[in-house]
Amino acid sequence: MEIEAVGYGTFRTPAGVARQAVADAIKVGYRHIDTAAVYENETEVGQGIKDSGVARKDLFVTSKLWNTERGYDKTKAAFQASLDRLDMDYLDLYLIHWPANTRQFGDQAESLNAETWRALEDLYNEGKIRAIGVSNFMPHHVEALMKTARIKPMVDQIEVHPGWTHATEIKALQAMDILVEGWAPLGGQGATVLTNPTMIEIGEKHGKSSAQVALRWSLQQGVLPLPKSTHIERMKQNADIFDFELSDAEMATISALKDLGGQSVDPDEVDY
Ligand SMILES: NC(=O)c1ccc[n+]([C@@H]2O[C@H](COP(=O)([O-])OP(=O)(O)OC[C@H]3O[C@@H](n4cnc5c(N)ncnc54)[C@H](OP(=O)(O)O)[C@@H]3O)[C@@H](O)[C@H]2O)c1
């Protein structure tokens, strides 16, 4: 199956804004929408999709299983609840939002991830999800999952932006033939990726904004970015990244930038 190379993110898009924002995003050309149960906007995302007038089959819709719903039965129920809120009868992609980690679950973490994954595999085999994957899984979490998995994760959505590159992990995941999606590709709320002078300077050389440079830097590593904006002009700008190319030197300069903020968390250290 195919996936649109730039997705539209909806994290921190309040329910009251999400319906219009998603309809606008689709109207300006996005065909790939990324939401999650924990964003508490699935209902409005689903309404925005309907308002757009674009047929469901022409869109790629992702949602994610929240951490409180891990385990076989709970996962199946949570998936159905997401589908109901979105008012859809299938998803294009469903992800385990975060791996259960040993900090929280000790030696039960691995089996909990395995049981959650088994539910995704069954939902996939039942035809309710077109592709299944994980999010915030580092290569070692994927390797652990593969001990019992019948189906390899097709996608891993991890934090990727200048200042938080995950370069080694991206290479390892791509070597496993897993598509890496980059969340917070602009750094997310409160980051300084877009105001960084080097990012702005590189953008000026190409007649592009620092946001477009950040997104192009992701794409050129084979990472699918998921920018979020509730502003139509920015939505357009964030998708207009196919008419320029960063040089190897520019890619290296951007990759070497440090401390640009963002969430920048280690999935083995979080307590959610
Ligand atoms: N799997 C996970 O654990 C996980 C975690 C976080 C995010 N995500 C996904 O990844 C998506 C993107 O991440 P994110 O929303 O945290 O951050 P992001 O897309 O990196 O950044 C969004 C921020 O940048 C601003 N912005 C967008 N385009 C801009 C532009 N062209 N120029 C200047 N500012 C711009 C937005 O403001 P305005 O809206 O005001 O334009 C917003 O404040 C999420 O929406 C979600 O779908 C997944």
TrEMBL record:
Keywords in UniProt for this one? Answer: NADP, Oxidoreductase
Q: Read off the PROSITE patterns from this record.
A: ALDOKETO_REDUCTASE_1, ALDOKETO_REDUCTASE_2, ALDOKETO_REDUCTASE_3
UniProt site positions, description: Lowers pKa of active site Tyr:
K64
Q: Any idea which positions bind substrate?
A: H97
Ranges for the NADP-dependent oxidoreductase domain? 15-257
Q: Which InterPro entries is this protein grouped with?
A: AKR, Aldo/ket_reductase_CS, NAD(P)_OxRdtase_dom_sf, NADP_OxRdtase_dom
One short Pfam name that applies is Aldo_ket_red
Source taxon at top rank: Bacteria
Q: Which family does it belong to?
A: Belongs to the aldo/keto reductase family.
Q: What is this protein called?
A: Oxidoreductase
Look up and give the organism this protein is from. Answer: Lacticaseibacillus saniviri JCM 17471 = DSM 24301
